[in-house]
Amino acid sequence: MTTTTEPREPLATDGELDTGPRVNKPQRRDALRGWLYMAPFALAFFLFLIYPTVYGLWMSFTGRSLMGANTELSGFMNYTEAFADPQVWSSLWNTVWFTILTSVPLVIVALLFAVLVNTGVKGQWLWRLSIFMPYLLASTVISQIWVWLYNPELGLINEVLGWVGIGNIAWLNNPDTAMLSVVITTVWWTIGFNFLLYLSALQAIPDQLYEAAELDGAGTFRKFWSITLPSLAPITVLVLILQVLASLKVFDQIYQMTGGGPAGSTRPILQYVYEVGFEGYRLGYASAISYLFFFLIIGISVIYMVINSRRGARP
């Protein structure tokens, strides 16, 4: 019996070893082009997010001052001081109270405005423009407008209240009315964003659902309760979470209208961080307060992600 052996092809030519699948030249060029496109964003991401975050966390464990002194690590001393600082808790409560007072009307009133505009009233472009236009203005403009409106002697609000016999009210100078004044300003200023979200969600509801409900004899309220509200549930969760996060970060309009007063009754936590860091020259302690507040916002974001994931897992 004879056996034949077919000749095997060489694994490599010209003395080179076969090291597996190779990337050809066009692929390498495409990969390099992709990295070059990403480089500006990656550099900006590192310089303006990663580096400040890590550097701020390091500062929170030091006694660093605004002049650059005291860079030695001090452990959790700043965090311990923050938990015992009554100014931190009062500022945090003002922030939470502002968030509660603004989030509820900015969700409910925005929904009502969107439903009314979506009913087909005449001049829809005017209604949409009127509700959304304040959102386009800068916070400085909004603050100046409302400071004049709230002026105890010359303001329009006290003038109108005087027609019904109500005396002058020092809106921004009274601890009982200062926070309410800022809340009214904020609601008027930012309601346009939530209004547009709700309006777009309303226009995405299929008309066939309402037509089928009418055939079954459903009235206006029944259609709103059984079709509109359930269809708006996902956008309502999104609006509520976005509104809570935005309200927790309040700073500019309060700083411009009241400066945190009177007697600290409107001072938010971010203004206290600013005062500690740039007026008290204690960057390390200000960083520690910032990170405590940062963890609070992260916790709220995690709650939203859990709610959203459970909603998506439902059949």
UniProtKB/TrEMBL annotation:
The chain crosses the membrane at residues 35-58, 96-117, 129-149, 178-199, 224-246, 288-307. It is found in: Cell membrane. Residues 1-25 are annotated as: Disordered. The keyword Cell membrane applies. Gene3D superfamilies: MetI-like. GO terms for cellular component: plasma membrane. It is a multi-pass membrane protein. One of its GO terms (biological process) is transmembrane transport. Residues 92-304 form the ABC transmembrane type-1 domain. The keyword Transmembrane helix applies. It comes from the Bacteria. Keywords: Cell membrane, Membrane, Transmembrane, Transmembrane helix, Transport. Its main location: membrane. Belongs to the binding-protein-dependent transport system permease family. This is Carbohydrate ABC transporter membrane protein 1 (CUT1 family).
